[in-house]
């Protein structure tokens, strides 16, 4: 069964696009939203995190060279108003896939050094409590295409 899950994960990641992994963690389809204006100092990155291991893990840090900081934010509708909350960590249960998708969560980039244009690359280094560091390169593209990438846990 473990071999089947591993093979399925590899096939899925190849079909869905770019991936990066460290031990049991796999990052699938990292995509960054293009900047709305040439003066934009913030950006957003979306992706899926798959934990193929037997143990849960936690995303505990994110960094990038294209911005001063990168933070995980959760979006919630509270009394008809969308609110963002910064998350210090994100639990990734064993065998689960967590989607960081528009309207749910995003990696917020603040202090962008230059605006993000379609085709640009956004290098991310994601730190997990057990699996360590995973480096991934998000491509700046149209976020509308993400609707077809949703996973079910």
What is the topological layout?
Elements: H1 2-16, E1 19-22, E2 25-32, E3 42-51, E4 57-64, E5 67-78, E6 81-87, E7 90-92, E8 97-100, E9 105-112, E10 121-128, E11 132-140
Parallel strand pairs: 2-11
Antiparallel strand pairs: 1-2, 2-3, 3-8, 3-9, 4-7, 4-10, 5-6, 5-9, 10-11
Describe it.
- This protein is mainly beta.
- It has a single domain (2-145), classed as Immunoglobulin-like.
- Helix content is 10%, strand content 53%.
- Strands 1, 2, 3, 4, 5, 6, 7, 8, 9, 10 and 11 form an eleven-stranded mixed beta sheet that branches.
- The chain is globular.
- The relative contact order is 0.27.
- The model is unreliable at 1-7 and 9-19 (pLDDT under 50).
Instruction: Tell me the number of structural domains.
Output: 1
CATH topology (fold) name:
Immunoglobulin-like
As a whole number of angstroms, the C-alpha radius of gyration is 15 Å
Q: Look at the structure and name the CATH superfamily.
A: PCu(A)C copper chaperone
| Percentage of residues in strands | over 45%
CATH class placement: Mainly Beta
Order of helices and strands: HEEEEEEEEEEE
CATH architecture level-2 label = Sandwich
* Biggest sheet statistics: 11 strands, mixed
User: Which parts are unreliable, with pLDDT below 50 for 5 consecutive residues or more?
Assistant: 1-7, 9-19
Q: Taking all residues together, what is the mean pLDDT? A: 85
- Total strand segments: 11
Helix/strand class: mainly beta
Percent helix, as a range, is: under 10%
Number of helices: 1
What gap, in angstroms, lies between the N and C termini? 17 Å
């Amino acid at each position: 069964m473990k071999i089947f899950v591993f093979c399925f994960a590899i096939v899925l990641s190849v079909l869905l696009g770019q991936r990066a992994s460290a031990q049991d963690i796999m990052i699938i389809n990292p995509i960054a939203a293009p900047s709305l204006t040439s003066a934009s100092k913030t950006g957003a990155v979306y992706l899926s995190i798959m934990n193929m291991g037997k143990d849960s893990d936690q995303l505990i840090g994110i960094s990038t060279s294209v911005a001063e900081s990168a933070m995980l934010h959760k979006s919630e509708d509270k009394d008809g108003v969308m609110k963002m909350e910064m998350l210090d960590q994100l639990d990734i249960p064993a065998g689960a896939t967590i989607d960081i998708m528009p309207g749910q969560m995003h990696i917020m980039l603040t202090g962008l050094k230059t605006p993000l244009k379609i085709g640009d690359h956004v290098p991310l280094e994601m730190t997990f409590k057990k699996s360590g560091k995973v480096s991934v390169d998000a491509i700046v593209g149209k976020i509308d295409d993400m609707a077809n990438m949703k996973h079910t846990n």
